[in-house]
Amino acid sequence: MEPRLHIVTLGVADLERSYQFYHHGLGFPTTRKPESGIIFFQTGGACLALYPADKLAEDVAPDFPSARSRFSGVTLAYVARSKDEVRDILALAARIGGKLEKPAQDLFWGGYGGYFSDPDGHLWEVAYSDAWKFQPDGALVIE
Amino acid sequence: MEPRLHIVTLGVADLERSYQFYHHGLGFPTTRKPESGIIFFQTGGACLALYPADKLAEDVAPDFPSARSRFSGVTLAYVARSKDEVRDILALAARIGGKLEKPAQDLFWGGYGGYFSDPDGHLWEVAYSDAWKFQPDGALVIE
Asked: What is the pLDDT of residue B43?
C-alpha cells in the first residue's frame, strides 16, 4: 500500500446545497454538477467528494446504519497563509451557509485558528502558524 | 481560499493502537511516536493525522460532544493499481486489527473494490478501476 489518501468523501443531505457551498461559496473547482449524483473537487493532491449520505452508508454495506452523531470523529484542515486569511475564510464560511464553531483565536500549540462546519456539520479547522512550511505545490511539509 | 485539503484528522480511542495499525500495519511513514500526542503521516499531497477523539472534539469547542455514531458520514478512499492490490490491502487490514466491512466485489459504477474500517471504525474504501488515471506524483486525475 502506498502512503496515499486519494479521496475524502463527505456524506451530505442535499447535494445541490453542498455544491453551492463548496463550489460557489468556497470556490472549489469542479466540472461536475449535482445532476451527476456525485461531485469531485481536485484539492491539491487529494480529492474531496460529495455524495448523498444515505447512499454513502449503503455503499459500505446494504444494512450499514446511516444515522450520524453531531461529532463525526473526523476533521478536515485548511492551513492558511496568514491570520487574516483565517479570519476571512471563517467569515466567508459563515456567510454562505456554514456555521462558525470556534472563532479565530490563539491556539495552545502556538498557532492561530478556528473551526467552521459545513451545511452537514462536517468540521473544518482553518489555522495558521509560521511553524508550518509549504511544499512548492502547496502541500504541507510534514515532519 | 485555495482549493486544498491539507490535513484529515481521525479521532482515535487509543493512539498507540492506531499508530500500530497505520504505521506498522499499513506502512504509512511518520517520524512521530504516540508519545508526541499526535501522529502525522505524509500521504502524498494531503496529511493524515491521528489524535485522541475526545481531545479532537474538545479542540472544536470545550462543550462539543465527543460521542460518535457508527457511521461518521465520511469515507476515505485508496485507489489501488489493480484488483489484486485491492484484495491484498483488504486482507492486510483485516489481519492487523481492521474489520472487513465489504468484501472486494464488482461495483455498480464499473470499478472493483471493498471497504475496511480501522480500529475506531473509520471507513476506508479500497477500489480499482481502469477509468481512474494517476498524475505523475500518484494523485488522481479528477475530471
From this structure: 85
Total domains, chain B:
2
pLDDT at A63: 92
Give the mean model confidence (pLDDT) for residues A9-19: 97
Q: How far apart are CA B84 and CA A17, in angstroms?
A: 38
d(CA B49, CA B9) in angstroms, rounded, equals: 4
Q: Choose among A4, A66, A101: nearest Cβ to B71.
A: A66
* pLDDT band for position B8 (cuts 50, 70, 90): very high
CA distances from A14 to A34, A58, A71, A119 (A): 9, 16, 19, 9
Q: Is A43 close to B4, i.e. CB distance below 8 A?
A: yes
Is ipTM beyond 0.90?
yes
CATH number, domain at A28? 3.10.180.10
- C-beta separation of A84 from A75 below 8 A: no
pLDDT, tens digit, for every residue of B18-39?
A: 999 999 999 999 999 999 999 9
Distance, CA of B9 to CA of A62 (rounded, Å): 27
User: Do residue A26 and residue B74 have CB atoms under 8 angstroms apart?
Assistant: no
A93 and A138 belong to one structural domain:
yes
Q: Which residue of B has its CA nearest to A75?
A: B9
Which residues make beta-bridge pairs with A105?
Answer: A113
**Would you state the pLDDT for residue B135?**
86
Distance CA B101, CA B18 (A): 18
- The answer to whether the CB atoms of B47 and A11 lie below 8 A apart is no
The one-letter code for the residue type at B32 is R
Q: Do residues B38 and B76 both lie within one domain?
A: no
pTM: 0.94
Cα of first residue to Cα of last residue in chain A, in angstroms, is 21
